[in-house]
Amino acid sequence: MDLIQISPAQNATGKKYWRSLNELSGTRGFTDWVENEFPGGSEILDPGSRRTMLKLMAASFGLAGLVACRRPEMKIIPVSKSAEDVIPGKPALYASAFVNRGVANGIQVEVHDGRPTKVEGNPMHPNSQGAASALAQASVLSVYDPDRARTVHEGATASNWAAFDKAAASLVEGFGAGGGLRILSERTSSPTLLSVKGELLKKYPEAKWAEYDSLDGGHAIAAAEMVFGQRLQPVYHFDKADVIVSLDDDFMGEDAASIEATKQFSKKRKVSKPGEPMNRLYLVESRFSITGAMADHRLRIKSGEVLQFASDLAVEVGAKTALKVLKPGDATQKWLTAVARDLKANAGKCLVTAGPMQSAQVHALAFLINQSLGNIGSTLTFSKAIFEPAQSIGELAKEMGAGTVKTLVILGGNPAYTAPVDLGFGELIAKVPASIYLGAEMDETAAVAKWHLPMAHAMEAWGDARSTDGSATVLQPQIAPLYDGRSAIEIAAQLLDGKAKKSFAVVQGYWKSVSSAADAERIWRKGVHDGVMPGSAYSEVKVAFNAKAIPEVAAASLAGTELVFLSSNLGDGRYANNAWLQEVPESMTKLTWDNVAHISPKMARELKVETGGLVKITLGSRSLEIPALVTPGQAEGSVALQLGYGRTKVGRVGEGVGVNVGLLRTSEGWAFAQGASLVATSGSRELAITQEHHSMREPDMPGRPGELRPVVREGSLEEYKKQPRFAPEVDHAEEMFDLQGGHDYSKGYQWGMAIDLNLCIGCNACLVACNAENNIPVVGRDQIRRGREMHWIRLDRYYTGTEEDPQAVMQPLNCQQCEAAPCENVCPVAATVHSPEGLNDMAYNRCVGTRYCANNCPYKVRRFNYIDWHKNITPVGEMVHNPDVTVRMRGVMEKCTYCVQRIQEKRIAAKADPAGRRLIRDGEILTACQQTCPADAITFGNINDPASAVAKAKAEPRDYTLLKEINTKPRTSFLARLRNPNPELKA
Amino acid sequence: MGLMSFFAPRVSKGVYGMMAEYDGPDTLIEACKAVRDAGYKKTDAFSPFPIHGMEEALGLPESNVGKIAILFSFTGATIALLMQWWTGAKGYPLVIGGKPLFAFEPSIPITFELTVLLSAFSSVILMLLLNGLPRFNHPVFGAKDFHKVGDDRFMLLIEKSDPKFDEASTRQLLEGTHAKSTQVVESN
Amino acid sequence: MAQMASTATLPVIDKPLAQEVNPSLVTGNLSYHEVTDQVCEIVEGKVHRNWYIGFAISFSIFMMMVSMLGYQLFTGVGVWGNNAPVAWAWDITNFVFWIGIGHAGTLISAVLFLFRQKWRTSINRAAEAMTLFAVACAAIYPVMHTGRPWRTYWLFPVPNLDLNMWQNFRSPLMWDVFAISTYGSVSAAFWYMGLLPDLATLRDRAAVTGDKTRALLYGVFSLGWRFSARHWTNYEKMYLLLAAISTPLVLSVHSIVSFDFATSVIPGWHTTIFPPYFVAGAVFSGFAMVQTLLLVTRWALGLENLITSKHLDNMNKIILATGMIVGYAYATEFFIAWYSANQYERFVFFNRAFGPYWWAYAIMVSCNVLSPQIFWVKSLRTNVAVTFVMSIFVNIGMWFERFVIIATSLHRDYMPSSWGYFKPTFVDICTFIGTFGFFMTMFLLFLRFIPCIALSEVKGAMAAQAHLPGHEPVKGTTPVHAGGHH
């Protein structure tokens, strides 16, 4: 296979870049931006300040010309077998990986004429299996972030790479044994980087390599070390477990490996016909996570109590004998016993997991329970840890404080913001004589480091990473660095001899070195092409369990309020400048553009505070003010705080959005802290929430108790067996008929969609995928407050049960593509009409914007361009747009089209098939939401073909359509939600 | 000329007719009847408001405005139906809400409105045409006190072109009908 | 302005007993000439300071509207508070409100004309003018509420040349386009035809006083009308036709406006009683607006002899009647919602009365249903002050009726997940206030340049009245009784 040829030489582009920067640095917009005199956050996206925004964005104009077509420097290998070369206008797919906190999610990147525009899961990757997370989907937007660092800085003054290379060379001279050299990296599983690390530590024996991840303490591996005596990676097999008990483990949400976990989980969750089995999930947690929403039984306790619970569960299942920590007759006792009995009944086919924020002790107990139930080897296996031991940030801080650190090299991660507040890491960095920070943004760490080097985006440089099972993926650059950045591998390698390196050489060099010279090239090519290096996966390690190593658990009394620190849509804050992620409604609370203190309704009543009211949280000597959000299902006495907000230096989008709760996060209270106190203060703030806490039950009115609306239909597995059609039977509306005969859709392709509510976990991946695929604009905080969000697919979250301890269900709601569409009848200019294939088409250029269609849509899925949302997009920002989809102007209506552009693409492919004209195959067309869904909840296809997956899904007895009684005949139908409750716990 | 005829100097162009003035609608009606009975055809009455029974008194035919306007109303209905049928079912057929390309039910409102529109405007235009309006100059404008008709004058005109017109006998007849005054109206 | 007309105001004489049977529509025993003077001097006499003050205020408010619309045109309809789910809010509320007001004019002119209600004569001119200006105010919204106002000509039956496609004539909005434009133009024609003789009168008076410009202007617009009996016959036929046509027209317009809602699938909109209910509401609000304006005009121009307590009495009776029809409709909606046993229907109506917008509903009911009940008392019906206050009340109530129907139905419909709330922005508010500025500006110009009372009709009415028992002949005319001279 031939390779794509290389375009312009580095320095050529470099020169261009500088020239353009000089040109633009004169413009008022740019200087303003540097002087930073603009309020950060979403405000810039609001109509009022769009003019200033335009000026600002003019700054990046210069780039437009040269980035229009920037093919990567080195040869990269396209996935598609047929493409000998790139055909202009036709996108190419390249296998790569999205690295989430050191764990690789295999992805494919869609590249239009040298512009990465869309991320898809890589079907060839053993773990992601074609799915991608919301973060991965959004990562493509960050490539074009105009606020990314554009140039090397020495202190506050702009410098350049040449200067740095000189400085680096002289520094390296002085390393000697490396006594004063410390390297702080993000947690990494990159084989290449780790090998470079090895060489570094060989060359500088006294140097130390530290790693820090602010959302995972690496406790799982530590626990393995505790009980097995060796660093092992627990590999969970949810697809083999009938009963799962999660100890504060949001394995389908915040976990770095959530994609594979979800894939596996949904395999056991899928029920295609009545009587089929389904797994059962128990969850113990403090805040209501999306995994909690999937749980069949959820126990609300403080995160601090999970340890006690774990220990008692171990006792109950007979894994150990010890005093019960929980007092007898405790409320959780009944629950505990039932769970234990269920586990024992499913010994070998069950799984107990612990969350990354839980201590090594909890993980060890979880291993112990699995061990005693004989799960190890079946649902839980161990293999070589993908992360290596490294100095902790705490120890590093000590050394820095002591002044023994002469040179500190920070490879990404923005520790000045993410490190525990008690370390005062920012000040410590300033103390170090020579501090070098490689970071993508002009962030908090860049402000204190001596050298700030622009970091290349993962799509701009070569790299590699492993998934939990060890299988490694090589990251291919999709575009030459827009802002002249370098990767961590390049900088680390540069420390060896002071000479600048090229990531391609280092990465390829490593992989060729580990495979036999004979077929090194073949393996490299295959690995890069498929997105998995052959034979890189680690094999299972047989383990010997040493239960003694687990320290006894004493009954701890948890005084005061508990604070729990969580990841957010913005990760640990690294995505704060990503507008898509800022605007993604948080799965459970539907909050955008802000973080809050999640408090239980009971606590809200006690504090006399309502959603949006400010509370002052005090923990020891530290305190801060933050708006409260009353969250049903939140554990009593526990407050959930989401990290990643309140960034002070990041860029126009993320600056000043939310509150930095990290200021309460100390080394010992790193995961969760006890003994905090809350008081309501006078102030309040209007939160941008896209969905209030409406349950499916109407509010009570004088003289009329609210009725339940059959929006999401739910039944137990038992019910389903007894009464398979429980969901459609809810519509007492008997067969409907059309006064005027209706329209015949029995011929040709008729597109339809089925969404399995039993599988949907509400992870937002589909929503962001839709953003990227359909060029959906970001509207900003103020406009969301006005109720004008533009997302074509809405993830409706409904609570059921009591306010204190509810269950939650998710329902993705996109355009239902009604055959008898109410929106079409009322459009005066026929801007929305029906296609022969049953699609509800929108002709944007015909729309005059009466909004009558939106009013008459019973599903409220139509979105209106109230103002020109695209006005503030830079030429660089425009590069992320999908050229196959129109960008809508001000004043027109828009909505989900079932990705009609993808339908057309496949139609052409089928007609122009080299093997001869043929019909479109089932499963050939994947809508953006369907393709990325890690739970495989969405099926799409031709409902006229009885053999198609969608036709089969619609034939299931659980299948129902929304609002049947108004006879809109939607093409999207839903498969009712199922739960598998433990009969013992049926209240 | 036209409007400005008020201010134009009067130059005699011969007699146009004989005008008599009355003090009120009742007397005018009586006079009209008398003149009609005397066999005069080319007559006309002038009053600040339409007087009940004037047609009968002057022996005027019934107005044709209605009869013709009805034709236009049918035209309106036809145009409306054809427009909706052709654009929807022939010119650019589109499936909208799964409904038939053309149906009568949804076509009723527009059909009705166009019917109304055409009949209304046709009757207005017909009225003007049949009255020969707009016409800005007319001999009667020259008559003494005629500009007070719009205020409170009631006048009766017998045109010279009427075969029975004879200045002396006609004046005599008019004076016999409680006319406040009589005058000769000159052509212009 | 009172002083302006004072020369013409005469003491109201005591009415003989017989008059109780046929109360006077024109009092003060005026002669035809006095009526002419009294009305024409408003137009011809010197303009009173108050008129200028009133005009200045109205015009500046009107200009405020213009600037608001300009801002919106360049920024987007997003400057209003509309959102999802409430995509229509004040825009369509105000549209329906003004259209509703526009109904009284034609109703008074046409319907009452057909029913030979002579008392209409002295108020129909002003009422018709009001109709035109109200329709003009209403027309602002369908255009400006769209996302791309510069494209609204696509709503007229012209092919879109870029896409060479046609309109969707099945959309109630298209019906609106036809209904409103027909209504507007026919009302204008009706009004102008009514004006024709009076313009001629003004022309002649100007000719006498030698005011060439006026003579020329009124001359042109009066089309050379010369009060000929032969013309009167065609004229009366035409006028009768217009009246006959306008009557179903005026009923159709608000019925069609109500179809915007009635043909939708939204609970609270999809209601079969809407057409009659909307028409009643329109008459209700229209008459109230006529009252408001007439009472001001009457006071300002001293027309007590032409706009008498008889007029107030009759109009208030209609307000009372239509008010109760509207109230009955409110009740029916609730009953049907309950009777339908449809949970969405039931919820939406309970939500109107007790939901987040309960206050709007409360205002609506108290203004439209409760307060008009005082009109059962005759003394209150003929009391100027009471009538004036009530007329304002009714219009407030009717505005809220439209708001309640539109906003409260939309803000909580089928999907609880997308329930929302609507708050107006300052642009919403200023634009609405601005429409009143426009309305008043037009009305003041009307008062200034056009006889606000239909002279020829009033005189006709006087002549007819003179024949009634208990009435002496019109001053200066000789009565001739049946079988008189022969």
Overview of the molecule:
The complex is a heterotrimer of chains A (987), B (188) and C (486). Chain A has 987 residues and is an alpha/beta fold. In chain A, the strands form twelve sheets. Chain A has a seven-stranded mixed β-sheet. Chain A has a six-stranded mixed barrel with strand order 19-24-21-23-22-25. In chain A, helix 7 (191-203) links the parallel strand 6 and strand 7. In chain A, helix 6 (161-175) packs across helix 18 (488-497). Chain B is α+β, with helices and mostly antiparallel strands and 188 residues long. Chain B contains five helices and four strands, in the order βαβαααβαβ. In chain B, strands 2-3-1-4 form a four-stranded antiparallel β-sheet, with helices on one face. In chain B, helix 3 (65-91) packs antiparallel against helix 4. With 486 residues, chain C is mostly helical. Chain C has helices at residues 2-6, 32-44, 49-75, 90-114, 121-144, 172-209, 212-221, 229-262, 274-301, 309-340, 343-354, 358-370, 378-381, 384-411, 426-449, 455-466. Chain C starts with a helix and ends in a 20-residue tail after the last helix. The model of chain C is unreliable at 1-22 and 482-486 (pLDDT under 50). Chains in contact: A-B, A-C, B-C. The interface between B and C is large, with 77 and 78 residues.
